[in-house]
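My main concern about presentation is that the manuscript never shows what a single data entry looks like. In essence, backbone conformation is discretised, so a fold becomes a row of integers matching the chain in length. An entry of this sort, consisting of the sequence and the corresponding backbone structure tokens, reads as follows:
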Amino acid sequence: MKIYKLMAIAFVLMALLCNCSNDSDRAVSPAQAADPTDPAAPDPGVHSFTGLPLTEDGWTDFAALIQGDAAAAVQASYDDARVVFVSSSEGDDSTGQIYSTLNITFDENGMFQPQGPVNAFATLAEAYEQLRDGYPDILLLKRGDVWDESFDSWDKSGRAKAERMILGAYGLSHLDMPEIMMFRSSETVSFSHNIVTSIKIASLSPWVNAFSRRVGGENFLVEDCLVTKGANTGIIITGGSSGDIVKNVVVRRSVVAERYPTDNTGHTQGLFAAGADGFLVEECIFDHNGWTDNPEEGNPATIHNHNTYFDISVSNAVMRYNISARASSKGYQPGGGGLIVANLSLMDPIGIESSRVEPSAPDGFDSIIKNNVLLEGWDSKTSSVTRWGIRFNNVSSSLVEGNIIGSVTSGGGVQAMYFDVVTKNEVRLDLRNITLQDNIVHNWPIVRLEGEGIENAKIMDNRIHNENSEYLILWDATVAPEITSSGNSFYSGVIDTDEWLTNYQAGVGDTTSVVSQTNPTGGYLVTDYLASIGETATLDAFFARIQQQRRGHWDERYTAVPVINFVREKFGKEQIAKIY
């Protein structure tokens, strides 16, 4: 498959996710669709997926959405919206009142505040009863308050894509997010046009997921939420049991950390998705999900638990600008393919696994994996030792471009890129139309292409450098006729690389690749980055800081793209920019 066709796939993904259906929507430009990190692409101040206005620092602009005038980029009417305040510390269900948007204002961080004193409700249940299905009502929980209570069966919709029902927070921004036990949707009644923002969920139940939406609908945004240490999956978003799907889901700028299984039978993910069409994960933090070091809390790492896991029933998936760290197994698993752009993977046993081994989909999936950085792969103490950067299964077409894979920990099972043809239930799942272009593999052994079932693999303009390993590319006679190779540079510090290159070129018909020892200009690990910005240069310090990210206390230095750009600079690569 030609690269331009793969870029067309990216355009389709982005256009579908825009869900252009009213005057506030706009199409994504071809430049932005083909490469959302292109610094030349325009930033119009409206999010390309949600269709909602953004502040200059990238948050949903609730002030512009709710109080915007006729010149606002997104036209919405909240004039008839109810505003409901709820406080476990100060509220009273018998005296709680309903307000309008005239009774709210916004602080310097764009966060909701009451316009003067308010009479809040006390319980989530009573406050929820004040909301009307089909209206852009707003329910605000007081910061610093804690509820031993949950939303157990949410089934109410907003009015339209730009007039969404909002569950959020109010109060002093230095206080903790309001904390609830769980957010659970109805599993029978579809609902649409919702925002959940600035809520902390701290479920410790060994039987229930913390944040669960399992029903159809559309236009669902989760932003600035915190799902903290506890049992079972952090966020699960799926279609309904009757087969209805959920469309146009966005999870952005949220933290999911230290979710773990409590027994050997269940699978625990940071984020799990299924039955969805159009799903964006953007600028989130996924850290240490699927396992625990404490045997009194739950189980150790296994190959079944991941930071993110998308089933093959998720179509038009996009993951960009996220940090995945210390997963039990996989950092990013787009089971049905998609666009995986400018993410950081740190100490994940498997950084990115493109597509899923699924005999019911033998034709495979399309994906673009671009400008990601994968560092310090490790085995997380799983029973199956893996240190894989990017793994490929069941691929129809895939463009793998501009990624940097570097510095794996020592040990067995190491593979920077692994093209894996699997036969399951007597169905062989082939890998077709793969382009590896302009990637850097540094001190992370083996780009592996072996076995019958790999078709049309292009390996162009990559740099593969392993100071302490003889393994550069592994291929065999079955795959060699399917490989087109050119313009690559190779180096090994433990073998005669010239001799190796002669054998490689003879095997695959390459006439332009060379031996070249190309090192970074300095240290490129996360600890080196931390030292460069004057912060405590330890991974523990980094993990602690990324788990503290939230609106009002968002430190751009502890997001994916600055780290990625630091690494890219060390390898002489151009900088990338975030485009929303």
